Amino acid sequence: MKPRATVTTDPDRTSDGAGIPAGGGDGTDDAGGTRTDRSRAIGARGSRTAKKVTSKKASAKSGPAGTGPLAGGITWRQRLRRDRTLVLMTLPAIGLLLLFNYIPLLGNIVAFQDYDVYDLGITGSPFVGFDNFTRIFEDYRFWEVLINTLVIFVTQLVLFFPIPIAIALLVNTIMSARVRAWVQAVVYLPHFFSWVLVVTVFQQMFGGAGLVAQWAREHGHEGFDLMTNPGFFKFLVSAQAVWKDAGWGVIVFLAALAAVNTDLYEAAAVDGAGRWRRMWHVTLPALRPVIALLLVLRVGSALNLDFEQILLQRDQVGAGASEILDTYIWWTGIKTGDFGYAAAAGIFKGLFSVAMVLGANKVAHMLGEQGVYSKK
User: Fold this and answer.
1) Following DSSP, what letter does each residue of 303-362 receive, concatenated?
2) Rounded to two decimals, what is the model's pTM?
3) Considering the chain, what is the average pLDDT of its residues?
4) Rounded CA separation 343/321 (Å)
């Protein structure tokens, strides 16, 4: 009988779990077999095991018969069964979105009708085609209001947009966490104020009987009333927007600054960069994607100025300086009962905003930023 080969293993095993058998220095073990033959046998067994695992993965990805392959190895029915709790939680939000955002879009049909809200309704009002849009393009007052809206928007973009960035950079340099939190709370608090309260505060400060005008009179200067100055109106509404909404922008930019790797600041400091150079070469490049995104969204809402803010101050400075597209649609369309004209103006406003978003996003892509959506 042939003696059984005895194989001893090295205590230091390799990563694949196969130890190196002890044997002679000539490459043979005690049973007379070569280590090469034994390695071939182990490799053959490993290759068969890998084929079985690969075939199992392929069958799992293909899914049951008739459903087709899906990423992740499960069908859409299995995913629906797995995520049914999350789906049920999102159903109320989807219902509200359909009820208040998408179903009302069907009412845009009145832009193509001579709409009579009292007697005929949507089903009985006669169709007039594009007559309401023709009236818009032939109305010189509409174009004056559109230009005035864009002027106020550009003024707010230049004066308002950089301020949250500057405040965020200043707050980010504060070392004390308690002081930083206090500054954030103070700056963000006016965001919760209504426009009625904001306009009232500015009236008490800069009106004809406000604190600033009274202080000027007490010191021998002539009083003034900025709230009724038509030439100053676009700067007035920009200042109100800064005081009310700058805190929200500060929080957004601070969140972006929190994601910056601190190793970059340390490396820049080691290279001899001062505070300003670190801000210019590390902080601002980190904020560029957020700045580009918010700028695109801001440009897309160029015609969506705050309706309540302008309406509250419209009578004080006159319609020539304060009229924007929303107040013009409200005055000439809804208030006079010309709903077809108002709906046509609303559609024009929506198309114009979409064009502005696409154009601004294209510019963001040209500058190397992602914008609202990535370039394919």
Assistant:
1) T---HHHHHHHHHHH-HHHH--HHHHHIIIIITTT-HHHHHHHHHHHHHHHHHHHHHHHH
2) 0.71
3) 79
4) 24
